[in-house]
Amino acid sequence: MGRLAHSHGDFLCPVCNKVFPLQRMLTRHLKCHSSVKKHMCCYCAKGFNDTFDLKRHMRTHTGIRPYGCELCEKAFTQRCSLESHLKKIHGVTQQYAYRERRSKIFVCEDCGFTSVSGEEYFLHMRERHPGSPALRRYFRRTAPALPASWEQCCCTRGTICDSQPLGPSAVPGTHNQ
Question: Of 17, 25, 85, 158, which one has the greatest count of Cβ atoms within 10 A?
Answer without folding.
Answer: 85
